[in-house]
Amino acid sequence: MENTGSIDSLGSKRSSSRQPSVDSLSSTSTSRSDWSTHAAKPTFAMSSDNVSISTEFSPELRVLRDSKEEPQLLPKESVQDMAKDVTYICPYIGALRGTLTVTNYRLFFKCMDREPAFVLDLPLGVVSRVEKIGGASSRGEVSYGLVCKDIRNLRFAHKQMEDSLRKSIFEILMKFAFPVSNGLTIFAFEYGQVYPENGWKVYDAQVEYKRQGLPNESWRITKVNDHYELCDTYPSTLVVPVNIPDEELKRVAAFRAKGRIPVLSWIHPESQATVIRCSQPMVGVNGKRSKDDEKYLQTIMDANAQSHKLFIFDARPSVNAAANKMKGGGYESEDAYQNAELVFLDIHNIHVMRESLRKLKEVVYPNIKESHWFSNLESTHWLEHIKLILAGALRIADKVESGKTSVVVHCSDGWDRTVQLTSLAMLMLDGHYRTIRGFQVLLEKEWLSFGHRFQLRIGHGDKNHTDADRSPVFLQFIDCVWQMTRQFLAAFEFNEYFLITILDHLYSCLFGTFMCNSEQQRVKEELPKKTVSLWAYINSQPEEFTNPLYVNYSNHVLFPVVSMRHLELWVGYYIRWNPRMRPQEPVHQRYKELLAKRAELQKRVEELQREVNNRSASSSSERAGSPTRSITPVQTFV
Amino acid sequence: MIIHCKDLRVFQFSLSFSKEEDAKKIFQGIVHHCLEPKSLRCLFAFSYCENTSYPEVQRKKQTVMFDSVEDWIQDMKRTKGNCRVVSENSNFELSPKLPQFFIVPSNVSDEDLTKYQGKGLPMWCWSHHSGCALFKTASIPLVQEDNVPQTYMEKMLTAVAHNHLYSVKTEDLSDTLPAVQDILLSYNKFKQFFLIDNTTEFWMSDMKWFSSLDNCGWLDIIRQCLQKAVEVVECLEKENTNVLIMEEGGSDLCCVVSSLVQLMLDPYYRTLLGFQSLVQKEWVAGGHAFLDRSNHLHLKDKAESQSPVFLLFLECVWQLQQQHGPAFQFSETYLTVLSDSVHVPVFTTFLFNNDSHRDNILRAESPHTQRSPLNCPTVWDWSVQFDCKAQDLFTNPLYSEKPKQDTSVRKSYRPKHLRQLSLPSSAFKTPPKKGFFKDEADNLKKILGVKRLSRWMLSPSSESPQTSSSVREFYEAWQTKPLDYHGLLLPCLDGPSIRVWMQRYLRWIHDVQILGGGPVAMLSKVSEILGEVQELQRQLDRHGCTLTSNHKGARPRAKTASVIAARSSVRLSSSFPFVTSRNWLFKPAIPTSLLQSLMVTGMAGNLADREDDGGGPESLV
């Protein structure tokens, strides 16, 4: 079903419902048919002491009891403060008066005046900044604004404390919303839910490389980075050319930014063309060269017998790449690297992307401006960036698939734009990554193990919201994936809700998956031991995240069309808080009905078949068949 | 030689290898038949009909043509209207501008019918189950000082008001919606974005795509029409007042709005046959000047009356259909094909300006003089254009059919709906409360004194800010209720919800074809499952199992399966069924305008290749 109680504040988008689901805006008693079935389940104990021992993790029960003003708490979640008569100023409904509860995990607001009751339930991890707006008003109220990472802002107002010694609930909120800044632990380290599967086991580098047919005669798996000595932001398991000994790898590492040497990400099962990722070469102003690096890339090219060329995709605009020379970086010169061709993909840096998202938020939240929607959208450049990323990935996939050529992809450090490109190209090339589990593997491999700096880019638990390291790089990637699912409705095993759930838990700090910046840090923090993986939760109820239209195209390469004509703003994510933009019942619902009908009919046919067999068996061997029983089940069904 | 087609195809022929005279001939031939002014007689329809003996029998059993009194009476009965059917004009004695048959409020007297050649006469469109109804009229130009037209108008309004609850709202569309010329201008700008004949140009325009969409205003016109229709729906559904929409000719935007209102309110019109009947009723019998608006004859003096009003209507329908797929029995492909058929000068449906025009021409052209008029096919006989398999693509496999216990559901459902909206439960026979009635009448008289009739409104909906907020509230109230595909449907009008009709506009552009993707991928999967369901059912049948109506729903819809199942969905592109790439190559369209460097780094070769990739466009299946 939905997910753990805490989460559905975020997971407002549910494929099966047209009605507002439970989230910040809507209310609890929207009667949905699929909930009524759960209503029959016994409600488990509500006091926070008892919950921790409950093994039940179905979330909807909390929602059904709307008489309570407190949230259903998660294991190890505890109420920190509660304030009555707080006003939530909803941009759609207007001012609502209710009770505000802050726990060490969430903010929970409930207004009982409305029928059905209004509930706002969001994990504190989503909050990016809390600010007091103005001084006390004439009515003695102070108001607070919460800027959230998931494209919304919340505004509250409450009476000024008469007892000035007591801390306001918003001070408490600030403390728990930014645990890292306040010396507290992130909730993910406390959350003790037990799921049937250990999500940390979803990805095993050895298994994944084996699936790709590695090691083989040209590629070997090296343990040179076992203790993260070669490169502290790379995983321990790396795939490199057979002919290059570990000693030489170290010399190549010296020439690549942060020691992020070119390593294999993906190999084409037939042509042996490979997708290689790395960081920029340390060319500098003087055009430094490294024989080892040149030889290394030559070896990579040689490993693919189909082509005598190597394409180097530099994700940056050429101007930026050139500017990096001033800082000691740069790009491969075609003189130094023979047979290599360098292509710039013109994707902008994290700062440009952050600004673009900020503008997008202005355009879509809280209300869409009536006039010039498309011009406003264009002025944010958000879709333009999406287009450039997809176009880059498309060119990489095209070179590998159609050109049978190996490609090297890098940007500056090789952990932002590079990973967007390689993971999208792999998604186009390899149907395995389009399954629910395959996609988890893709994220674990390309993003997490290769050191996309989630902690810095998202700023988990950190109050420094102006940090220049924050950027929606991962969000952009998920948006690109969504654009692909729009074009290939049947090619992905997961649905939109799956993507939204991933994004929600990117911020929620409930699961350990997106904590830390690199594999090394995760090992050091013992994340697999101390936290729960998001995949454990998702894999415990895969049917929620499954696209009913999925056709296994596994051997099929997808080339999306990257024209603006086919790109769309992801309304289901960016504009989901606006009740007017709630989707109507999607096609999937109808389709699910059909599937159910098929299953039902199949069952009936099978039953009949069995009876026919039984009967024919009984008539031939004169065994005791029971003809009376044979017809009845079908007829009662009808 | 480059040919730009009305269905947005662009053909490029090289004549450099042909003889100059031949080239000239071809060129002149095309120009002669396509672009030069000519008389209606020269159209292909007439030579076509003369040479084809065409059986008339089939068409009647399907679409209601609204060319007989019975059709009108039946439609009025269906909607439980109680107005007066006028058949006096069957030979166009009253006025050639009026349809052969039409319905007016029962209080309209015979002498009123002929005044002003039918202008100002409220024509019944549709009755709401509460008893109130929608009327449309051509407004009378108020030029003279004398009060005659005005008193006539007042009389007509009173007649409309008498229909139900003694209430009426008027809506002058000429004031609130763009003029037909503006529609044409906007469409011509919009069209240019798709008449692209080379890749470079395409990718260049891609960068400014969104702002160009805004600038041409086409989507905004669509939004305005839908919004106006929602306003009218609100009056009928929420306030139960009669509505009279008017504009100068009474047969352009009136047709758009009235048909949209009926689509939103009446599930019957969302079926394939219902929709065709609606077009017959509102557009063909309603006297939309198809000939002038599409300018089949390329007459210079008619150039300014040209306007894609019917296309605008189809666009609006498409928007509704996108937002509420399962509510429509027909598919997107159907709408696309219909929009193309307007330009095929073979069908009587779209050839004439009104009933009498049609009648005159067909009689005059008849080969056997004084016999039956010339018998031309209507566009609804799809077999003229497409074979059965192709026609299967017209139905929406996901259409949620109405449960079989049709009538009982309807009865029990409707009153409930009324209650939900907290309407005055004024259903069919309202015993007029005296006081109430008197107030209204006084009010009416007072307002009728006002000079400008078009502004005569009981609702505040003439001021746009208020209107949009009222419409918004109406939409939100509707949205919170469970969706019923056989009840009222409202479109969402916010920015991202109004979209470009991809199938119609992008189908010929090779660079945007999604190979192995697009809606067809979903369609094929759905059809596959439907096929399986069907097969299982057949097996059950074979086993002698009787099936109840429960499962019948899936049956007629499974037809699409046969069409698509034959092809692997992987091999179909988003332009299916309009384009199938024959030499299907796996090469993505890479944007060229991204970077100049692209051209330098050897992409030129790639570019050159691409020209050959696009398989020649084949027609449906």
Automatic annotation (TrEMBL), chain A:
Enzyme Commission no: 3.1.3.95
Q: Where does substrate bind?
A: N324, K325, M326, K327, N349, I350, C411, S412, D413, G414, W415, D416, R417
Q: Where in the cell is it found?
A: Cytoplasm; Endomembrane system
Q: Which Pfam families match?
A: GRAM, Myotub-related
The residue ranges flagged as biased composition, category Low complexity, are: 21-37, 615-630
The record's keywords, sorted A to Z, are: Cytoplasm, Hydrolase, Lipid metabolism, Membrane
Tell me what organism the protein belongs to. Answer: Salvelinus namaycush
**Could you state one GO cellular component term attached to this entry?**
membrane
Active site residues of this protein: C411 (phosphocysteine intermediate)
Question: What is this organism's lineage?
Answer: Eukaryota, Metazoa, Chordata, Craniata, Vertebrata
Q: What is this protein called?
A: phosphatidylinositol-3,5-bisphosphate 3-phosphatase
Q: What is its main location?
A: cytoplasm
Q: Where is this region: Disordered?
A: 1-38, 609-638
Membrane topology, record value: Peripheral membrane protein
List the biased-composition ranges (Polar residues).
1-20
Q: What are this entry's molecular-function GO terms? A: phosphatidylinositol-3,5-bisphosphate 3-phosphatase activity; phosphatidylinositol-3-phosphate phosphatase activity
Which protein family is it in?
Belongs to the protein-tyrosine phosphatase family. Non-receptor class myotubularin subfamily.
Q: Where is the Myotubularin phosphatase domain?
A: 199-574
- Write out the GO biological process terms: phosphatidylinositol dephosphorylation
Automatic annotation (TrEMBL), chain B:
What is the name listed in the Swiss-Prot or TrEMBL entry for this protein? Myotubularin-related protein 12 isoform X2
Predominant location category: cytoplasm
Q: Which PROSITE patterns match?
A: PPASE_MYOTUBULARIN
| Domain Myotubularin phosphatase, chain residue ranges per copy | 66-505
What are the alphabetically sorted keywords of the record? Cytoplasm
Q: Where in the cell is it found?
A: Cytoplasm
Q: Which GO terms describe its cellular component?
A: cytoplasm; membrane
> Which organism was this protein described from?
Salvelinus namaycush (Lake trout)
Q: Pfam families attached here?
A: 3-PAP, Myotub-related
